[in-house]
């Protein structure tokens, strides 16, 4: 019984603190204009702000998900925090143009299957810290 209590306390103490993380999407790397709708060809810049992350080595993961198609891309990065403090992270995504033959056959500059509703799911150490939706049209 005591072993389980100690394990539970260890997990609570060892779990990283991620209080009040916010996610925002922007049109460019200046991070001045927040957007939730993007045109094909736009870059989507994701800013993640966390007020507290505990000291230690962590892994942040961002899943870029096309709602009807599933995960299209996953970005991840290991980072180390020496003392608990606020931290910001940045990731970006751009809808690639299809190859020449696909553009000719579809008469579209972009893969239209990739247009529509998207969301990003952000995790630190496999714990979800935020979800944000956006439209790619």
Structural class: mainly beta
Instruction: Please describe the biggest sheet, giving its number of strands, its sense, and whether it closes into a barrel.
Output: 5 strands, mixed
What number of domains? 1
Query: Helix count?
Result: 2
Strand line-up across the major sheet: 3-9-8-5-6
Question: So what's the oligomer here?
Answer: single chain
Radius of gyration: 19 Å
End-to-end Cα distance: 56 Å
In the CATH hierarchy, the architecture is: Sandwich
Give helix % range. Answer: 10-25%
Q: What is the residue-averaged pLDDT?
A: 83
Q: Which regions are unreliable across 5 or more consecutive residues at pLDDT < 50? A: 3-16
What is the CATH top level name? Mainly Beta
* N to C succession of SSEs: HEEEEEEEHEE
User: CATH superfamily, please?
Assistant: Macroglobulin (MG2) domain
- The CATH topology annotation reads as Immunoglobulin-like
The count of strands amounts to: 9
Strand content: over 45%
Note down, in words, how this protein is organized:
The protein has helices at 2-14, 100-106, and strands at 18-19, 22-26, 37-38, 43-53, 56-66, 70-81, 85-94, 116-124, 127-136. The protein is mainly beta and 137 residues long. It has a single domain, classed as Immunoglobulin-like. The chain has a five-stranded mixed β-sheet, with no helix packed on it. Strands 1, 2, 4 and 7 form a four-stranded antiparallel β-sheet that branches. The relative contact order is 0.25. Residues 3-16 have low confidence and may be disordered.
């Amino acid at each position: 019984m005591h072993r389980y209590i100690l394990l539970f306390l260890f997990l609570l103490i060892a779990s990283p603190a991620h209080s009040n993380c916010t996610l925002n999407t922007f049109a460019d790397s200046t991070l001045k204009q927040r957007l939730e709708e993007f045109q094909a060809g736009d870059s989507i810049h994701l800013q993640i702000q966390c007020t507290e992350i505990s000291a230690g080595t962590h892994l942040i993961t961002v899943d870029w998900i096309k709602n009807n198609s599933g995960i299209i891309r996953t970005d991840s990065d290991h980072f180390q925090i020496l003392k608990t403090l606020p931290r910001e992270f940045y990731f970006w995504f751009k809808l690639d143009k299809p190859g020449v033959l696909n553009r000719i056959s579809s008469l579209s500059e972009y893969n239209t299957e990739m247009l529509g509703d998207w969301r990003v799911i952000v995790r630190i150490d496999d714990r979800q810290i935020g979800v944000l939706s956006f439209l790619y049209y």
